[in-house]
Every structure is written in C-alpha cells, then in structure tokens.
Design goal:
The complex is a heterodimer of chains A (240) and B (177). In chain A, the strands form three sheets. Chain A has a five-stranded mixed β-sheet with strand order 2-1-5-3-4, sandwiched between helices. Chain A starts with 6 loop residues before the first strand and ends with a helix. With 240 residues, chain A is an alpha+beta fold. Chain B is of the alpha/beta class and 177 residues long. Chain B has a single domain, classed as NADH:ubiquinone oxidoreductase-like, 20kDa subunit (Rossmann fold, 3-Layer(aba) Sandwich), CATH 3.40.50.700. Chain B is 31% helix and 21% strand. In chain B, the strands form two sheets. A five-stranded parallel β-sheet of chain B has the order 2-1-3-5-7, with helices on both faces. In chain B, strands 4-6 form a two-stranded antiparallel sheet. The model of chain B has no long low-confidence stretch (mean pLDDT 95). The chains are: A alpha+beta (240), B alpha/beta (177). At the A-B interface, helix 3 of A face helix 4 of B. The complex binds iron/sulfur cluster (3 copies) and FE2/S2 (inorganic) cluster (FES). The site of one iron/sulfur cluster has 12 residues of chain A, from helix 3. FE2/S2 (inorganic) cluster (FES) binds next to loops of chain A.
C-alpha cells in the first residue's frame, strides 16, 4: 500500500511524475516544466475549459481532453505534443482569428496580446478558415475603460475575475455559439453600470485587445494578470 | 555559371510598407543581389509580367477587379508565390471595409466627408470587389510571411532561404502585426 494515498503516479510525454490527486493535468505538467498552451486558464481564477487550447492526448481516452479541467489519475499516460494535437491547436487559433476582426497592426494590444503570442508559439503563419468579418460594437462609455468586441475571444476571464475576485458580477455572457457576447450588467453600456467598481481587474486579465484602459494603448498596454495569485495569498492570510 | 534566380515583386492593396521593409535590408540587399535578377517590380521599369518568374513576392490584399486579374496572371507565371505581409495574408487594414460593404464606405469617403466635388469616382479606376480578400483565398500561395510590415531581418531570412533553393516556413519566427 502506498504511504501517501493522495499521490498519483503518471507519465507526461514519457516522463514519470507524481502529482497530488486533486491536481489537474495542467497543474502537474507546469509543476514539472512541461509547457501546455492555454488561453482561458488563468492562475487565481476557476477553470472553465472553454478555449480548448490545452487539449492533450490521454491513452485510452477516445478524444483529446482539456488539461486544465482533467484531473490526474493513477497510471495515466499523457501526451502534450504531437502532430495531431499541434494541428488541432493551430486550427483553434485560426478559428479565433477568423471569427472576429483581428487587425493586429492597428490593435491597442499589438505586441502585448496572448492570442498573438500564442500564434507565434504554435507556429501559425496564416488563417486557412475563411474570415467572417462580423460587424461588432465597441463600447467606450466607461470613463476609463473600453470594450472592443472585435477582439474578444470569449475566454470569460473578465466574467470570472469580476465575480470571483472583485465580487461585483458586472460581466456576463449573452447568447450562444457564434452569437455569444460578453455584456455588462443587463447589456447596458459599461459606463452606466451600477455594479462596476471601476477596479480594472477585468482589463488586467483580458488576454487580448478586447478590454483596455483608455490611457494606455500600444507599447504601454502591458497587462498584469499576475496580481491574482498574490491577492489570493494575501486574502488567505487575512482569514481568521 | 548557373542561371540567376528571377525575382519579381508586386504591390496590390497595401501601403508599400512591405516594399520599404525590403529596402530596409540595406547592404544585405546588395549581398543578395548577386544571386537574383529583379525582372518585374514597382522598383524597375517593366510594364508586363514575364512568362516565367522563379519567385514573386506579393504585397497587399486583393481588393479590386484589377488586383484579381493581376494575381491570377502572376500565379500562372510564378514558380514560388510568397505572400509578403499582413495585407496579403489577412487583408489587414485593407479588409476593414469588409464589415461595412463597398457602397457605404464609398459614400462616407467621397460624399459625406468630402467638401468639394462630392462624387464616387468611377472613371479610370478599377471597380472594387465586394470583399477585400487575402491572396491565398484567391490563388494558391507557397510561402507566408506575417508582419505589418515583416521586418527586414525576416525578409532577409526568407530571401536567403529561397535563393538557396529552400522553401522557408515562418512558423515561430514572425506573427501578425
Ligand atoms: S487582440 Fe491580439 S490577435 Fe487580436 S488584433 Fe489585437 S493584437 Fe491581434
Ligand atoms: S472594472 Fe472591476 S468591477 Fe468593473 S467590470 Fe471590471 S472587474 Fe468588474
Ligand atoms: S473581454 Fe477579454 S477577458 Fe472578457 S471574454 Fe473577451 S477576451 Fe476574454
Ligand atoms: S486553458 Fe484549458 S480549455 Fe482553455
């Protein structure tokens, strides 16, 4: 019998590792410096498994599984990179670029965007999927922030940080599938929101140019989502 | 002595920034120039596209009837077609009109926002396509070079590899923007 019942042994890309039973494949992989690309995942927020960029192959499973929401199990054999997985991931990226209007050259996030850097990391050079060119709104009614739906990837980081960390619940998702949009309050202009505290957390965690501070665009628009884990540690410390 | 590689560059709906970036290679352009012959380009004086070109670099998106005619002809007479820069690759700024449609955009520019001689030009200019399209949506493309514009270093890498007989891939080297 194992001395530590909470420990699971599994292999990731052929390397044998141990992980706590409550860890996800993503957590276990990152702890062992195995890189799995992610977009909707952000340390300090709950997992939603929405973007599917973290798909990995698990031996015996009939389809690829999202590493951020799949828990480790004893004897699991995980593959994080192979041609099939890589192809899936670039296809997902291409879908993001084709679905909305991403014009990096004139985007406020150019050079500071997680979608853009993922495309570099995953070796995407062009988009095979036909571009959709939807007509989407930009809401600049908030005195400090703007939401540009042309650049939104629906990762819901804004929704989660606003509810889970700020407790304001300003953001929500409306509609289904290709028609989905993030909204403030009951689809009121952000500037009219009665719940928004103007804390700016959603802007900091947004991976793209969809949410930005009016006074900092372009090279100044570096975001700082890393405040989250610190904030959590501080709050843990305050608990009696 | 082996035959020199023939090179062409064309400029469709773009801002000429990609051609500027090409010239930005500075003395490296001279170093490479001993290996190719520039047979057609906005930079040289030749009116018709040659029958056979080894490598053609395309800057710009396909936005007009004229662009469409040109790119089809170029594809037919080119061995390796290179999409150079975001306009060729994604439509980029040129394609921002796609969400509005041609007519509203023309009216906005030439009537609503014009002070004098308000009229949409129709004579002596090619008709616009209803949608601006990336080059690879219209003809097959062999090499994709992202960037707005691609840096001189990236273009140098692409040209060096092409001149060495390789087909470069820019995955992990360059991104849009
Ligand atoms: S959000 Fe990112 S990927 Fe989209 S246009 Fe802006 S920089 Fe490019
Ligand atoms: S600024 Fe703060 S309170 Fe307002 S929507 Fe963003 S996260 Fe929520
Ligand atoms: S606005 Fe930003 S954080 Fe919110 S869903 Fe869109 S991309 Fe994600
Ligand atoms: S990071 Fe796992 S689904 Fe988005």
């Amino acid at each position: 019998m194992s001395a530590e019942p909470n420990v699971r042994t599994l292999t990731i890309d052929g390397e044998e590792i141990s992980a706590r039973s409550d860890q996800t494949i993503l957590e276990a992989a990152r702890e062992h410096n195995v890189d799995i690309p992610t977009l909707c995942h952000l340390e300090g927020l709950s997992e939603v498994g929405a973007c599917r960029l973290c798909l990995v192959e698990v031996k015996g499973a009939r389809r690829l599984l999202p590493a951020c929401v799949t828990q480790v199990a004893e004897g699991m054999e995980v593959t994080t990179h192979n041609p099939k997985i890589d192809r899936y991931r670039t296809m997902i990226l291409e879908m993001y670029f084709a679905e909305r209007n991403h014009v990096c050259s004139v985007c406020v996030a150019n050079g500071n965007c997680e979608l853009q850097s993922l495309s570099l990391k995953l070796g995407m050079t062009h988009v095979e999927i036909p571009y959709q060119y939807p007509r989407l709104p930009v809401d600049a009614s908030h005195p400090r922030f703007t939401v540009d739906h042309n650049r939104c990837v629906l990762c819901t980081r804004c929704v989660r940080v606003c509810s889970e960390v700020e407790g304001a619940n300003t953001w929500g998702v409306m509609g289904r599938g290709g028609q989905s949009m993030v909204i403030t309050d009951l689809k009121q202009p952000w500037g009219d929101s009665e719940t928004c505290t103007s804390c700016g957390k959603c802007v900091q965690v947004c991976p793209t140019g969809a949410l930005f501070e009016k006074t900092s665009v372009g090279s100044k628009a570096h975001k700082h989502p890393e405040f989250l884990p610190y904030l959590q540690i501080m709050r843990e410390g305050e608990k009696p | 002595m082996s035959e020199l590689t023939t090179l062409a560059t064309v400029w469709l709906d773009g801002c000429s920034g990609c051609h500027m970036s090409l010239l930005d290679m500075d003395e490296r352009l001279i170093e490479l120039s001993s290996q190719f012959r520039l047979v057609y380009s906005p930079l040289v004086d030749r009116k018709t596209f040659p029958d056979h070109v080894d490598v053609t670099l395309v800057e710009g998106a396909v936005a007009s009837e004229d662009d469409l005619k040109k790119i089809r002809k170029i594809r037919e007479h080119t061995h390796i077609l290179v999409s150079l820069g975001d306009c060729a690759l994604t439509g980029n700024v040129s394609a921002m009109r796609n969400t509005f449609g041609v007519q509203p955009v023309m009216l906005r520019v030439y009537e609503q926002n014009a002070d004098l001689q308000k009229q949409v030009p129709t004579v002596g200019v090619p008709a616009l396509l209803d949608r601006v399209r990336p080059v690879h949506e219209v003809v097959p493309v062999d090499v994709f070079v992202p960037g707005c514009p691609p840096s001189a270093d990236t273009i140098y890498q692409v040209l060096s590899e092409l001149l060495a007989g390789k087909v470069p891939t820019l995955g992990g080297v360059a991104h849009f923007g």
